[in-house]
Amino acid sequence: MRTDTGQAFRLEDYRPTDYLIPEVDLSFRLDPDETLATAKLTVERRDGVAAGTPLVLDGDGLTLKELLVDGTPVADAAFEATPDKLTLMAPPEGKRFELTIVTRLTPAKNSTLMGLYVSNGVYTTQCEAEGFRRITYFFDRPDVLSSYRVRIEARKAEAPLLLSNGNPADSGDLDGGWHYAVWNDPFPKPSYLFALVAGDLGSVHDTFTTASGRNVKLGIYVEHGKEPLATYAMDALKRSMRWDEERFGREYDLDVFNIVAVSDFNMGAMENKGLNVFNDKYVLADPETATDVDYANIEAIIAHEYFHNWTGNRITCRDWFQLCLKEGLTVYRDHEFSADQRSRPVKRISEVRTLKALQFPEDQGPLSHPVRPRRYREINNFYTATVYEKGSEVVRMIHTMLGEENFRAGMDLYFDRHDGQAVTIEDFLRCFEEASGKDLDQFALWYHQAGTPNVSVKTQYDADAKEFTLELEQSVPPTPSESRKKALHIPLAFGLVGPNGQDMAYDSVEGADVENSVIQLKERKQTLRFTGVSSRPVLSINRGFSAPIALHHETAKEDRFFLARHDSDLFSRWQALNTLFLESLIDASSRIRGGREPEFDAMLLDYPAEIAADETLEEAYRALALTLPAEADIAREIGENIDPDAVHRAREALRTAIAREAEKSFADVYHALKDEGAFSPDAASAGRRALRNILLDYLVAGAGEPDRAERQFAAATNMTERAAALNVLAHQFPTSEAAGKALADFETRYKGNALVLDKWFMIQATIPGPETVERVRSLMAHPTFSTTNPNRLRSLIGAFANSNQTGFHRADGEGYDLLADTVLQVDGHNPQVAARLAVAFRSWRSMEKARQEKARKALVRISSEEKLSRDVRDIVERTLG
Ligand code: B3K
Ligand code: ZN
Predict the structure, then answer these.
(1) What is the C-alpha to C-alpha distance for residues 263 and 259, in angstroms, rounded to an integer?
(2) What phi, psi does 790 have (nearest 5°)?
């Protein structure tokens, strides 16, 4: 483990290396306990650097076996090798030399899942961000690009399959039951994109012909016997390849593209050049074991990693501060892909829900940082919702401001100008400025300034003058290390909705640039005056969530209802209804806290029956509209002094009230939606199942007894229906016989299927209420629970801490203690995953006083552990503030 040295890396300290490494020749002789890695590096002194300047390479936990310069061993006095650094004091004076480094690795003992490790008998690597330095000494930073030749030797029986980046070049048998393969990657890449996989795996194959007629061999490698579960991923891959050609003009560039699924993986997947490595959760699917959400995630992540081939790999980041350059942009691209493959408004609503659930609390708490951070102690802690999701929103805003044509021209220029380079956000923005002629100076603040901007809205209509006035005011609250904020350039899509639901025309507008129904808000305060507005309009603003802001628009309930029913923008309809739900849930929770009964507006109780049955709306949209804000959403909106038990009771009360009111309509729709045909994972079928499942949740809550969920559980013909029914049973009747029986059935049925058992753990971890802490502790003793498998940890502990408000925030602090215990335990073998878990503490200051104190104690207990990793120390210290 790398213990913390307190060192911080700063953007302004960026400086290029003294040497380049244009070519890398790697050979591996694989053995679980003693792998030899030989790296022959062609080292080239940069122009302007003095001959003999010391060469300093990064390492992490390395053991050096041999060191040669131009084939001759280096004398002991001429170098220094520690586990984390190799210094060659006086390299040859010539321009180029060859450095050979032999390191000894123990992949079977590598529990960090960074560098070279063994998962389920398969050798695999993870190098982003700084894992390559756990394999050999190197300039392990993204601005050093090299072409790689990789030779892998392994015992044929242990690893018949040998893969690396690029194209296959050679292979054959060796003595003693060994064999080898050689791979060549002609495209220069940074070390974080290196990958190797060796093992005994099954596979599915296909081919793809690119737009220019090149043939690419596709392969997906999975555990033997699981090949049929990879067909959906393969289909998603081919669709992604075609889409990138059509939408962005980007073709694939190698002869092969391989994907490997492994079961122990720190995150979702990794975009290594030509050899993507995936968490098997995002590859394997069939109707019996995967839900519709799993299918959608597989499609999105396959696309995301594939799209990195251009945004990330062909054009990479100059340094890790620029992470959003590849991540935000690639998320934007995968969002657009899913929107094109599925339903655009439904996709947009889901994106915004995710942004608000994950990024808003990050930006409003102690871990807030700009989309392009300026400092980090541990880069792995910056693979955040801000870099990814807000990073994507920033790219979306560029698209909104420039329009499709200029946006595409900017992207084309970016690909053209920077192919093969490691670049910065400034380089990226310059392409859009040049392509569109627009000035993005003020807009660039979105990358540099942290915090969720607040925009408040006031409106007024003067019937005599037929004038509509709109007052907009923006402010960004202070965030760690930035107290004063500048005004941002915020694009706000809007419409003045008339009585018939159509947008009204107006004669003129002054007070802001308005183009294509988008207001460009640039000042702290701007007043817009619309003339020639024939009757009082209802303002629909931030349509499609054109800017990632918190909107404060105090308006009459009637107007919100009007928008919920009539706005021409489906996203805004959802937004209006969701705001109505939120406002009434906040009110209900404060009543409950004050010892009063919650009260709900009749309109709010009537409308759901109407939506459920409204056939002009797609089912997936109706399902989203009927989904009440989660407890965490309500808590986030309350913002301070939160009592999660009151929030929980408020939400339950509203759910029951709606269910009772809408019983008949919900039951009719529920029955009419029963899928009779063969399962299809397409968006429309998934939408029907989603609507049916949300209705089940209501119907069971309204009835107050589990029968209907038991029936759905028993009759389910796919995992989407089965898991949803189990969830309803376990969450609404946790101690009932029905829930106990269903949980036991599920466990027996899926014994041995790790991905499905993860669902079983997750459903139980998220059962609301104080008793779940004990349930989670006893599940940690389940024979299949292990803290070394990240998926299992996330499905039990991660789900408990992030998605169980009443459990994790239990008043006596037991939930916090459970998380602290786990973080400390996991930190001993996998700091990256431990740090990720610790992030769940980030909103501790928004709880009521007694809980805050309990959370603070748990955090202090973690931070007082002397041997804490840099990863966890960084998170815990920033969280404590
Ligand atoms: N680039 C990887 C994430 C690497 C995370 C390192 N801690 C997957 C992705 O975003 O596509
Ligand atoms: Zn990515």
Answers:
(1) 13
(2) -60, -35
Residues forming beta bridges with residue 173, ordered by sequence position: 179
User: How big, in percent rounded to 5, are the helix, strand and coil portions of the chain?
Assistant: 45, 20, 30
Residues in the chain: 881
* Confidence check: pLDDT of 20 > 80: yes
Mutation choice for ligand 1 from 383, 386, 836, CB with most ligand atoms inside 8 A:
383
Q: Please report the pLDDT score of residue 676 as a whole number.
A: 78
* Distance of alpha carbon 553 from alpha carbon 555, whole angstroms: 6
Whole-model pTM: value is: 0.99
Q: How many CA atoms lie within 13 A of 532 on its CB side?
A: 7
In degrees and rounded to multiples of 5, residue 155 shows phi and psi of -70, 130
Place of tokens 């308006």: 555
| CB 672 within 8 Å of CB 630 | no
For residue 270, what are the β-bridge partners?
A: 277
For the segment 199-211, the average pLDDT, to the nearest whole number, is: 98
Q: Does any ligand 1 atom lie closer than 6 A to the CB of residue 310?
A: no
Q: What is the reported pLDDT for 481?
A: 84
Tell me the C-alpha distance between 116 and 135, whole Å.
7
Closest of 842, 860, 866, 825 to residue 381, by C-alpha? 842
Query: What average pLDDT score do residues 846-863 get?
Result: 98
What is the per-residue pLDDT across 130-189, written as a single tens digit (0 to 9) for each?
A: 999 999 999 999 999 999 999 999 999 999 999 999 999 999 999 999 999 999 999 999
Spatial separation of the C-alpha atoms in residues 627 and 257, rounded to whole Å: 39
C-alpha to C-alpha distance for 360 and 453, rounded to whole angstroms: 10
- The H or E element that residue 21 is part of is strand 19-29
What is the rounded average pLDDT for all residues in the chain? 98
Q: List, as one string, the DSSP characters of 161-218.
A: EEEESSEEEEEEE-GGGEEEEEEEEEEEE-GGG--EEEE--EEEEEEEE-TT--EEEE
**435 vs 416: CA distance, rounded Å:** 12
Mind listing the domains of the chain with CATH numbers?
316-448 (1.10.390.10), 456-541 (2.60.40.1840), 549-704 (1.25.50.10), 750-881 (1.25.50.10)
How are beta strands 513-515 and 518-521 bridged, if at all?
Answer: antiparallel
Contact by Cβ (8 Å): 429, 523? no
How far, in Å, CA of 207 to CA of 536, rounded? 59
User: Residue 368 to residues 128, 331, 654, 862: CA-CA distances in angstroms?
Assistant: 22, 20, 33, 21
Q: Is the CB of 267 under 6 A from ligand 1?
A: yes
Phi, psi of 258 (to 5 degrees): -120, 145
Residues 6+ apart with CB under 8 A from 680: none
Tokens of 621: 């949209």
Q: Among 114, 128, 326, which residue has the most ligand 1 atoms within 8 Å of its CB, making it the best to mutate?
A: 128
- Cα gap 379→842, rounded to integer Å: 18
CA-to-CA distance for 706 and 729, rounded, in angstroms? 6
Reported as a single tens digit per residue, the pLDDT across 298-329 is 999 999 999 999 999 999 999 999 999 999 99
Question: 550-559 b/e with 16+ CB inside 10 Å = b?
Answer: bbebebeeeb
Residue with the smallest CA separation from ligand 1 atom 7 is 380
- pLDDT tens digits, one per residue of 739-756: 999 999 999 999 999 999
Strand pairing category for 96-105 and 525-531: unpaired
> Are the C-beta atoms of 438 and 400 separated by less than 8 Å?
no
Q: Coil, strand or helix: which one is 522?
A: coil
The residue whose C-alpha atom lies closest to atom 3 belonging to ligand 1 is: 270
Residue entry with tokens 């050689």: 182
